[in-house]
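Provenance and format

Records in this collection were gathered into a single text stream. Each protein contributes a sequence line and a token line. The two records reproduced below are adjacent in the stream.
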Amino acid sequence: MPSIPWSKRSASVRQASTTAANNELAVEAAPDAAKLPPPSASYSSTPISPRSPINANKPLPSPPPPGSSLAEGPPPKPVLKLARIMATLSDSDIEKLFSGAPQYFARSEGHNTGAPHPSVAFPWDEEVGIRDLADHIQVEDHAWRCMTAWPHITRGARRNSNASATTGGLDRARAHFYPRCRERPNMLSMLGLEKGTIGYQAALEMSVSDALQEEQYGFGSLGFKAHLILDQRQKLVSSKDGLRRLKEDFVLDQLSKNGRRYNSGILTKDMSSELYNDLFLHILHPPNRIIDHGDPYSLAVQIQALLKVLTTPNVWLDFSRVEWRLRLGQVLWGTLEGDEVADGTAIADADTMGECIHERYWLLLQVLLACELLIRLDAITSGEELGVESIHPDDIRRFERDANATVKWSLILARVWLDNIEVRKSEPDSAPPNHASTGWLASLTERMTLHSHRHTKSRDMEEPATYTVKGVHGERQINGLTHFARKLQWPNIESYEARITDNARTVNHSSPVSGSPRDSTHARRTSVSSLPKTPTLKKGLRLRRRKVGAMLNPNGWLSKSYISSLVLPGESVSHLLMATLLENDKEAMAKLGPMANLAGGFIYRGKSFWSTNCVVGRVLAAGNGSAECMGWISSDVMPTEVQDGWVDITVEETPAATQRTGRKARLWDKVNVEKDSDVLGNADPSSVFPADFIIPTENNYLEPLGIVGIELQSLSLSAARDSFDTLAGEENGFAADVARHKINTYSSSLSFIATRDGEETEHTFSLSRDVYFVTAHPCAPSQYVKYVKSPSSPTIQQIDVSGEDVPGKISTVASVTGHPLHKSFTYTVIHLSELLRRRSEPLESLLQNTPARRPSLTPTQNTTTMPRVLVIDCVTNFPRTPPQSTPTSPLSATPPLGSLHGVAAEKMHLESRARRFGSDVEILARAICAEMGWDAVISRRRRGCLGCAIREAGALDWRVVIRL
């Protein structure tokens, strides 16, 4: 085809082809250096038509300027052997170009599984070093693995495996049934690589989180549904087609038996008859009709019978509710005198100890039935991973249909119980003495019985047997507690570590939990409950993460829950860790008081400690010297004019968060989640051209910027207001102690000094919005493409696929690498100093009035479209803050991103060092977002490119990227 003379081209075409001059641009193609997997499923739905090497609607590059060196001599030979320079990219070209680029998805896991599951994948890469990249850290201690129901790898698990030997080797291979039920948000993703941040998955799940579910009225006792609950329980045990009336002793005996059966590891389908007799002769009434004519004694029949009982409404504790996961330990151990909540609410409205015992009985009964169900599910799924198909598809569909959220969470509780708790029976004449044991794994509760006064003695006045409930991983949990304290840089940790450890061991042996009622009908109980909503919240709005307040008590149920490992997935473990640390530190308890705001923060011995539920903690986490561990932040930044004690921070939800929850959440719009982050900009894969891409960069300004220095001046807490009232009608020392340690609510702000060209200005930002920060998912630059700089338009001349330097080549290798960005992703860059000057402008104004960074525009593209993403440049002219050095770190600098290919060990080093960055500049950028109400993606150089961060912002439907 003859070429078109330059003189015949229209002015609009020449203008479009020269728009992107002097940009660092990208296209690609490379020899088959490595075998790549087939294209992602995200493209498989679009029919791929045969690509034509010619498209008459695409412009050719502009001619070189007259008289320039480029016009002398013959034009350089293109690297790619294409019929035309502006040929479309093939599937193989696209895969190589975006090798190492994360792709963002939201896919449903099946029926009855709730909102879709967000995930990040590298569908075109097989290298371990790329596929293992993550935007969150690993669980750092075996004691904390209870935080999530997702399968995961725990760092250093081998060092914590000694306790497994005490239970016959819990880590050995065993058939496990995993219910399709997980905590939301995913707690693994809540531990972002950057301190104070979360990951992509957690960010999307925040608006469908478990904390946003409606309250379960009438949990466990005589509250709103008291009579309905009692009637339903009575009906359940009086029916001849359901649960038998079980004595308390039998419940504990059967729990002990199930523990031995579970730990023996012998769970197979051959046990069907034995399990059938055990279930229908002692626990349930046999079915009144034949369910399976082929095998009436099958495991499927037993599973259906147990499901029928466990799905009975208004009977069982619903642990799909966040609050009740934490209150699990309160039901078992929260009946000690001297424990009571100070915010006027309690776990139940029981008036007597007998009612508390009633609740404990039904909890243990629920655990028993869930364990019976789980053991049968383990047995029936044994061998399925080896291809032994013994489960009929109809049984699977029936189970998924009938097993509601209450049943699935009961199964998770059963797994936690069987893995961590042991029940032993002691006869009356051989009951252990009531004194502290010297062993590491002594009983958590001694002489535990469920009898009230009317059941205390039988007719012949014989004393009932007592039962010992042991946590079998006490040593592991105590090691995890000291690990938590060290990571948070707890004051005087060296001298307090031994004391905290000894006190935590004592928790295993002291304060026996007895079922005998107390004399007083006002026996106090430690309680955890939601704090009152702050007045700044509009009526009907709820925070995405629950605010939790509790009364701490030495040797209380909070410590016992953690030390026993009886912890359900979710954020409960972070609350229990801090509560256990404080309850076993007498000096801290004396200074801070018994009231605790586990979703706020406290000041103690020259440091401030903040829950990641609190926006102040998420902002201060960006500072140099801060530390984060399991949902808690420690910082050297102290608030002015506030003494040691707990504080509560008032915040407002962002408008986007309040409008997009539940079914309106971004996660439910799974089509647009993938569309708005597609590497091809949702374009037709058969018509993608090299000129459609550029490599975005943050430091490309027309005018030079002055040197900017940022220094944090102060954290201010003001407008104190009482958050808790003292206990009404109490005049004893307990109420006085509560009154002396009130928790006040404050509004918070941060002040900074900015220095530019020798002039200092002060800026104060109010941390008034409950914003979140996401660590941009790491990426790895493509190994199949070499990006080069070129003064011409974005054509194939800007890619070197030969892998070698060609003598006399006009272009030079680019110093900045990254993945290209499609022209549909519009963005604009603003320097942090410019943002300070224009801080009063709304986001839309900043996007419109700042030059947008776009790829070359075709004549048909709408040039008036407002950019979608604001990139805050915290890189240009700011000195790089080196990572904090530690004596144990073998590295002195972060390894190059490209070295991650195939090197999993260096990925681990990157992860371990990721949280040692920080500066006042980073705190300032987050503080601006907290005042303006901007959720932001945190993108750091050498971990990920700007193009991938902009695509992730598109997936989240967020508008701001902070580039560090």
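Adjacent record:
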Amino acid sequence: MEVTRREVLAGIAGVPLFARSEGGGPGGAAPGGPRPGDRRPGAEGAAAAAVPEVRLTWLEGRPGTAAASTWGTPWPKGVVAKGQTFSIADGTPVQSWPLAYWPDGSLKWTAHAIAAAAPAESYTLRAGTPAAPATPVTVRDQKNHVDVDTGVIRARIRKSGTDLISRIWRGDVEIAGKGRLVNLKQEKIDEHDDRTTVLDRYESDIKQVVVEQAGPVRAVIRIEGGYAGKKGKSWLPFTVRLYFYAGAESIRMLHTFVYDRDGRQDFIAGLGVRFAVPMRDAAYDRHVRFVGEGHGMLAEAVQGITGLRRDPGAAVRAAQIAGSKLPDPATWDQRVTTRLQYIPTWGDYSLGQPSARGFTLKKRTKKGYGWVAVDQGGQASGLGYVGGVSGGLAFGLRDFWQRHPAQLDVRDAHTGEAEVTVWLWSPEAGPMDMRFYHDGMGQDTFPEQLEGLNITYEDYEAGFGTPYGVARTHELMFWALPATPPAERLGAMADQLRTPPQLANPVAHLVSARVFGGLFAPVDRSTPARAAVEDHLDFLFDFYRGQVEQRHWYGFWNHGDIMHTFDEDRKVWRYDVGGYAWDNSELSPDLWLWYAYLRSGRADVFRFAEAMTRHTSEVDVYHLGEWAGLGTRHGVQHWADSAKQQRISTAIYRRFYYYLTADERTGDLMRSLVDSDETFLALDPLRKIRTEPYTPDPHALAIGLGTDWSGLAAAWLTEWERGGDPVAETKLKATMRTIAAMPNGFVTGEGLYDLSTGEFAPAAKKVAVSHLSAMFGQVEVCAELIDLVDMPEFEKAWLQYCRLFNATTAEQTAETGAGFGNLILRQGHSRLTAYAAARLKRDDLADRAWREFYTGDGYAPNLPWRAEKVTSTLNPTEQAPWVSTNTTALYGLAAIQNLALVGPRIPNP
């Protein structure tokens, strides 16, 4: 009887991660035992060498206030034994857990967390017994709720109902409660001045609560559910993770929702997180704070006693401005004291960020009365506070202005209970329009759609431009404070909200660990030739970073992505021209950015890549429905194009962020891809261009050996090395072995795949090579696999492809029986030549790689390599008309990998 994947996984569910390598991840045999060629020297024999010490530094420099951080550290193969414990040299308490294993069972990646009241400049991670926190975070998992205590604050998380966090205490004082998710929904979008739509109110409905970590330094609680209305209807499935650190006064929230409508009805008109905040102090001792741009701040009392016709006294006024408790009113000038009841109390405040360029701030006394404009500004921090001298809640949304329209609301601060709402989508922005952007324009048949592709580069197909199943993740912070904080403290909190403290490994350690295929080396300007390439790499990154700001590539769904192609006539990027608009990972800019960070350690590159990973992994990929596990090709809308493919959803783009930060959400996303081979039953990627009838057969699925297989392989590889899925290992190695068995290996182009065995069927000798096959992570996946799996026949097949892609037609024909045709992207493929040169130790191939890099069809050394100012567009900006994102990504990857693989052969200028 065949054992299904689900049954196999059920057998290992609940096993601690350190123990899982025994069952089928690296270090344990897949069902049926090891195959010839598997490298398994045994986990018990690993770590004979001493565990190296790793000096960690803060990505943006030491934080100026208390900071917590979680990060991942890699280890060389065979050096760190499974079960190894870790410590910080100065005695800082640390919590550690495994992220990935090498095939011999040794640790490949470990995750670590610290919480420091006074952060040091750096920390040294080493083998040893970790110090225990003075006030560890503790978790009590009860029948109906989970209680978490950081030693400073306590929180109660409900397991059902509406409230995610029902109470937050600091000591014996309740700081906040009734923490829930809120949503406004409308069925249709009003057109013109027809305003008839009624808003329906929805709130969180908890389905499951799981304790993922329980201390002593870090605790993680996962909450799953949906948004439910009063009539029992539910939509927008969500996953919320709550993060607590030992000794911390804050809670970090990661909120993810999946849009489960087709975009034609049911529109989000507001989406937020809401808390109730008890107000115990006198109205003049209650305070509202909003941090705007930089450390600019609105600092007011609910009942102001400054600027009055009568003066209560300088000490009284100074105390209110400082947020301190005012002296007894009996000590004030009695002309003020006796008239306090006539001074307005301002209960409601609202800061809205409708665009990346500006926010507005207004207030009113209470519901039913007019709003008074306070001020306007540029890019608000997203941080606010409401409370008083006896305690209050600070609240914030990361990427507040970048993800506009966002909003912060305070309501009823003049009553016994204020209400705080952090709006991820502002209700004042109108409904979120998810509709497809055109009517199809008569493209009813495949031939008509291909004609449309030939003019706008958009691959349209009716019903395919749906947002059903796309997702978005937001990061929020909440601080339970003992009193209204001074301005300096709020400014520091705003800085940490904008840029959360992140510990990072030194570049030298990342290189020496030989992770991510060993395809990068430290930045090196030691020769004029190297320096010139480094200058070009710097220019390209700095140019795109500037374009994001100048072209305003921001917004709820857009933040993190970049545009595909420039329009030299309009002097704007082709935001409205089909497949030339949003890039959606086309030709791997994600990889370019992450490898650029790994070799440089630059904080600005990390943050750029982080934003792109958050976007491309959520917005450009389907997480529900028949296309779950597939991504959408580049287009005017992120979900518009009908090409739904593995090459966009591939885990190879996400691995970097997961392993460097141990981010659980990214781990979920990669794990969800492990069964995405089943999507080939639902959708044929080549349906529009096949010349022969094709019906998907689970035992003979047509799967491309390039962009399709590399996406599947990345998911299987990640799940296997994380130690949790022996079936992933089986499928990964079976496909490797059967691709290698094809007479022309990867040059064959496509194979017939059996879902039940994970094998490709024997194939005839043929040649089918595309310029795209290796450009969506296949280079990087294969480099990692060759490092991990001792399968010489697979390496031989891959090196053949690497050698021949840019070779002469005669060379291609001699080995495979036919030439590959008139291929493009030769500069991007120079890194394949370089990889073959390094593996085969052939200087002739190394020299050829550099010739291809300098003379290929990409960026040439004699280009301007500068941007010029443009004043004829809507806003002044810069342009470099010769720059395109396809070429940039491939130039960046080719430069980085060529320097790492065949750097000594780089020709002098």
